[in-house]
Amino acid sequence: MNLHANIKLLRKKKGLTQETLASAIGISRSKLAGYELNINPTLDTLVMISDHLGVSIDILLREDLSSYSEYKLRELLETDQFLRGRKLRVLATTVDEQGRELIEVVSQRAKASYLAGFSDPEFISELPRFALPFLPMDKKYRVFQVDGDSMLPVPEGAWIVCEYVDDWTAIKDGERYVLVTEQDGVVFKIAYNRIKEERKLLLCSSNPIYKPFDINVEELREVWRYKLVIN
Question: Which of 4, 73, 106, 123 has the greatest number of CB atoms lying within 10 Å of its CB?
Answer without folding.
Answer: 106
